[in-house]
Amino acid sequence: MSNYMNEYERWVASDALTDKEREELKAIAGDEEAIKDRFYAPLSFGTAGLRGILGTGLFRMNRFTVGAATQGLANLIISNGEEAMKKGVAIAYDSRHFSDEFAKQAACILAANGINVKLYDELRPTPELSFAIRYYGTIAGINITASHNPKEYNGYKVYWEDGAQLPPAEADVVAKEMGALDYFTDVKTMDFDKALSEGLIKMMDWQTDEAYLKQVLAVSINRDCVKQVADEFKLIYTPFHGAGYRLVPEILKRLGYKHILCVKEQMVIDGDFPTVKSPNPENKEGFNIAIEMAKQNDVDLIIGTDPDADRTGVVLRDKTGEYITLSGNQVGVLLTDYIIQAKKLTGTMPQNAAVLKSVVTTEMARVVAEKNGVACFDTFTGFKFLAEKIKKFETSGSHSYIFAFEESYGYLAGDYARDKDAVTASMLIAEMAAYYRTKGMTLYDAMQTMYEKYGYYAEQTISIVMPGVSGLERMQELMKELRTTNPLTKVGEDAVAYVSDLQSGTKTELATGKTEQVELSGQNVLYYELADGTIFIIRPSGTEPKVKVYIMAKGADKQSAESKVEALVNAAKEIVK
Known about the structure:
By secondary structure, this protein is α/β, with parallel strands linked by helices. It folds into three domains: 41-204, Alpha-D-Glucose-1,6-Bisphosphate, Chain A, domain 3; 213-454, Alpha-D-Glucose-1,6-Bisphosphate, subunit A, domain 3 (Alpha-D-Glucose-1,6-Bisphosphate, Chain A, domain 3, 3-Layer(aba) Sandwich); 457-575, TATA-Binding Protein (2-Layer Sandwich). The protein contains 20 helices and 23 strands. The strands form four sheets. Strands 16, 17, 18, 19, 20, 21, 22 and 23 form an eight-stranded antiparallel sheet that branches. It has a six-stranded mixed sheet with strand order 1-5-4-2-3-6, with helices on both faces. The protein has a five-stranded mixed sheet with strand order 8-7-9-10-11, sandwiched between helices. Strand 17 and strand 18 form a beta hairpin. It starts with a helix and ends with a helix. The model has no long low-confidence stretch (mean pLDDT 95). It comes from Candidatus Butyricicoccus avistercoris.
């Protein structure tokens, strides 16, 4: 009998399951594919923690996988000594199904292991957890969230003492500890009320919010421009049924805005995300209600944050009166330029200023930064790598970072946290909009002006979904083929000039075969530079069953840049299949 079948039967027979959980498993009896999908392997624990579909089984998010991950983390903390246990763990959660229960469960497991816990009294933005770790000096943090994934998902993110995601060495320890546990018998726990009365669990409340909001407001650069337009400027905000619902409107109010219109239907905390197909601020569909409101109220700007309030989406009214979504690249470039200009204007630009972006993020940011005398550095995809770079700057004193962002709608400014922050991003976007309003411009006008000033860039990300076990195998096979038996020399009609393999850290010129080392290495990414300067990147996602292809082009005008990208979209689908 296969391993997954043995594991399935072990779970069905376990006394640890409730009747409901057992019935869920009995319902798939005889369906080998369904059993294999739930039991072929445990949910793997990586630097991003766990993420998966909610349900009973080894390869699902449930109280047993959360329990094993927490016991694994507890073992890591205990191995760091008594001081680490005393420092303890901060815990936050979002609006998803079971998020509050998993957070409470994790708190009880840590407490049973003699580890102090600080638990938020209700859902909070992810960045506020990163802040709390640094503010209270905890050894680690846990966030129960699946960010902007569909409602069927939940996740378990772990942070380390600097407020960034768990480093690889520590993540490996947790994974190893998890692998050695019996999920049913090896996880300690204790009664929640008992842990509270013994002082092992302490609650975080509005006082932590106040400390956090104070730090966020300090990132604001030019509040005077908000004061100038506050009487007449209206903007719309939606939290997509999630954790930004309280603190984003609050920070906009403290910034000086008087007319913040919130999308009432989406201010309701609901893990089903009933008003949207997907609670992802990248998708225009989620903004439909907000756009109707904007039309009725003559509003130019809509801001939306995802369920755990770490990503930020923006919708603008264009010259024709249509409402359009900005990409993460466009918002990031607008903020890069605004932050640089505002810091120069207010005399707050540090020496050796730097902007950070991920390698799959638009090159327009580099042009904007460097033309203004600011350095620009690339990191791998994932905010943990940007956080690592910020830490290196802090340690070496070589640069002062002023802004970090990723094309996937994540932005950070300020030293108080080490993860992308939709609360701060919303504040800076609103401040930037006010600044341009004082110049008689909208953010849409500002974007067009930037293209004229810095060049026309276009980008597109394509996700090719490869579900299940066969999908994971195909992803590995594809990357292997591209490196060995089937290397790309052309993408569509365009010749490849250079290929950088960011696993080995080597860049090869195809015409000569000449190779050189590049700064980034150790990640499964292939980075192609085409003869006309267009960039084409292939990367398997670290958190979802998909391969991502990033296309980035520059053209003489908007249309030529977009045409270059469009021509490569079909080529990408032919390559990645």
